[in-house]
Amino acid sequence: MLFSSPQSLLELNLVPEEWGGNTPMVPISAKKGTGIDDLLQAVAWVAEEKQLMANATKLAAGTVIEAHLDKKRGAVATLLVQAGTLRTGDIVSCGACCGKVRSLTNSAGRPVGEAGPSIAVQLIGLNAVPNAGDEFQAHTNDGDARKAADAAGEGLRAARIAEMSTTGSMVTLSSLATFDEDTDTLQRMNLIIKGDTSGVVEAIKGALQGLPQESVVLRYLLCAAGDITTSDVDLAAASSGMVVGFNLNPDEAVLSHAKRLGVTINTYKVIYNLIDDVKAAMEGKLRTIEERQPLGTATVKAVFGSGKKKDVHVVVKAVFGSGKKKVAGVVVDEGKLQKGAQMEVTRGKDTIVYTGKVASLRRIKDNVEEVQVGLECGVGADEWTSWQEGDVIKCYLVVTKSQRLEEARAATAVDVNSLSDRGRRRRPAQQQQRTSTRCEQQQQQYRNGSSSSRSGRQLAAISSCGCRRQQLHQQQLSQPAAGLSCKLQHCMAPAAAAAAVVRGAAAAAALCVAAGQWRPQPAAAAAAAAAAAGGGWCSWQVVMQHTAAAYEAF
């Protein structure tokens, strides 16, 4: 580990030898190339002192340091042998990859026949490019190697699904704020990341995870080592994705194919430039916001009809036009008034009586574009004439502004508890008592088997979980028609209990409950009836069809 000072070691409860501890500290400089030999000697001394030894006679095992795809040699993995001896011709599994060792190359670039513990070598012969950090193991036969690779692949797929569920794919109360108001879809940005090595790809993913994703979620369609291919371009075109390459030079055929499909390929040599461009692309998906830019305020001192009455107030000495149009004579108190800007007229205690544009501004006989603080002028509005003395004019500009990810994070912050409370509308105590009694009756009917229909059995089960009781309770439910069984726990949102019973059928109902659009009990009933009709799984339309009947029941 690298530390800048002995104080950094103390933070980890490591005391340097020079301070009376037992932790050796070696100063090095990669820029000057000093201290490297001392570091190697210190490592060898610590290994000898602690008797760090490995069995060199067993089957080889170790870790992947780096891996990449070579055009001529195929998948190339840099391995660190930690136990046993790796030889040419061995059959190995490496993460989700496997293969036979065709050649081994040492750190000097020379081919070797074997590599013992603590030796780093480049291996050629795997059927795919492994990930940096994957563990490799030598096997006695090809079947064992394939089984180990398949098991590792299943683990990687499970981890990928779990990662997707934690990056915005699951619909939860807190993710409701990330739905676009215009399209009702979650703002996503699809990425295809290709790099020269797998370690670089993982480093890019780790760096991008540091970007705020409350409003725009990054979705990795493909992350792999190797050159950018036409298949990557086709995937980007089909998903409106962005192709990002690091330390790569795409072929002319790939570039022309991307140009024909309208896909932009971005390649980088510096990771900071990559992060900045991805962040800018994410901000481009955010909706623009309108902000008020205050200009000034003014107070109405007199009101007169243009062309109908002689001016007796010094603020206006010109005619705004013929007809019965009324004009306000004002004094600018703060800032300035600007023609064409927006204005808000307040009367009394901040009562807004008009909002619109400043149609005209005049001083003496001249039409002016703006009037500064302390000056008098006449203000006219085309569609409003109900001026009164004492009205206050607030002049402002409406500025369209692009959001930044940090600003969008603050704007989309949602209090989940208050959002949940909107869906759980309070009912009078008497109505709650009636509902509780009805739930108990339905539950008793379910136990006795008197409910003949599947929807009645499911409705009784779900309603029992929807009762708003303070104690927790569990009940084993059986659904022969759906082939499901689950143990339900007390839930404050009945639609969530419905989701546990009927799986995906109640997901839409749960979402509506969270948004406060449905009452909880009818939503749960609709999901139950829809599931009964669909055999345990149904679509959103089926849930909607049963909603009206659920309202009647409750």
UniProtKB/TrEMBL annotation:
Keywords: GTP-binding, Initiation factor, Nucleotide-binding, Protein biosynthesis. Residues 176-279 form the Translation initiation factor IF- domain. The keyword Zinc-finger does not apply. Gene3D superfamilies: P-loop containing nucleotide triphosphate hydrolases (3.40.50.300), Translation factors (2.40.30.10), Translation initiation factor IF- 2, domain 3 (3.40.50.10050). Residues 60-137 form the Elongation factor G-like domain. The keyword Zinc does not apply. GO terms for cellular component: cytoplasm. Residues 416-456 are annotated as: Disordered. Transmembrane segments: none annotated. One of its GO terms (molecular function) is GTPase activity. Residues 441-456 have a biased composition (Low complexity). It holds the Pfam family EF-G_D2. It comes from the Eukaryota. Signal peptide: none annotated. One of the essential components for the initiation of protein synthesis. Protects formylmethionyl-tRNA from spontaneous hydrolysis and promotes its binding to the 30S ribosomal subunits. Also involved in the hydrolysis of GTP during the formation of the 70S ribosomal complex. Belongs to the TRAFAC class translation factor GTPase superfamily. Classic translation factor GTPase family. IF-2 subfamily. This is Translation initiation factor IF-2, chloroplastic. It comes from Tetradesmus obliquus (Green alga). The lineage of its organism: Eukaryota, Viridiplantae, Chlorophyta, core chlorophytes, Chlorophyceae.
